[in-house]
Design brief:
The chain is an all-alpha fold and about 170 residues long. Helix content is about 85%, strand content about 0%. The longest helix has 29 residues, at about 145-174.
Length: about 170
C-alpha cells in the first residue's frame, strides 16, 4: 500500500511488472537447467534454431556449444552442492547476507545524510523495487533505469534537495 500510494509513474510500474515477469522466467529457466539436463539440452537446440533463423549471431553452433559446456559445469556444481548439505546451507546464507548488504547500501546513504524518518524496512523494500525495475534493462549496470527507479522510489525519502547527491553516492558505492 505504501508504494502504491507514493509511486505514481506509469512507466516505472511497467518496468516493475516487466522486471518481475522476466525474473520469474529467468529463474524458471535456471531451475530447469539446474536439475534436468534433457530439458536444458532441448532448450539449447531451440536457442540454436532461433539464432540461426534470425541471424543474430554469426556462428550459433559455437555459441550453443559454449552454453552447453557451461550448463554441464552448472549441473556438476549442483551435484556437488546436493551431495554436501552443509556447503549448500553455507552458500545460501552467504548469498543472503551478500544481497542484504547490497540492499542496505541506500539505508547507509540515507543515514549518512542524517535522515531518520524512514525505517530500514521501507528503504530495503524500495531498493528491492529499484532492483526489480532496473533488471529489465540489458545494459551494464542497467544505466538509466536504475537512476530513474532510484529517483522515483527514494525521492519521497531524500526530497528534491538531497536526491541527486544521494543518487550519486548510491551509484558510486554500488
Amino acid at each position: 500500500d505504501f508504494f502504491i500510494r507514493n509511486v505514481t509513474t506509469p512507466l516505472l510500474w511497467l518496468f516493475l511488472i516487466a522486471g518481475f515477469f522476466s525474473q520469474v522466467v529467468i529463474t524458471g529457466l535456471i531451475m530447469i537447467a539446474s536439475f534436468n539436463s534433457k530439458i536444458s539440452g532441448w532448450l539449447l537446440r531451440l536457442i540454436e534454431k532461433l539464432l540461426s533463423k534470425i541471424r543474430f549471431v554469426k556462428e550459433p553452433e559455437k555459441l550453443v556449444k559454449k552454453l552447453g559446456d557451461q550448463i554441464e559445469l552448472f549441473h556438476q556444481g549442483n551435484k556437488t552442492l546436493i551431495k554436501s548439505p552443509r556447503l549448500m546451507i553455507v552458500s545460501f546464507v552467504l548469498i543472503f547476507v551478500q544481497i542484504l548488504l547490497i540492499m542496505l547500501v541506500p539505508y547507509c546513504v540515507y543515514r549518512g545524510f542524517s535522515l531518520n524518518s524512514a525505517t530500514v524496512v521501507e528503504i530495503v523494500c524500495s531498493q528491492s523495487f529499484v532492483t526489480l525495475a532496473s533488471s529489465m534493462m540489458p545494459l551494464p549496470g542497467a544505466t538509466g533505469a536504475a537512476e530513474l527507479a532510484f529517483s522515483v522510489f527514494y525521492g519521497m525519502f531524500f526530497g528534491t534537495t538531497m536526491l541527486k547527491s544521494a543518487l550519486l553516492m548510491w551509484r558510486v558505492i554500488t
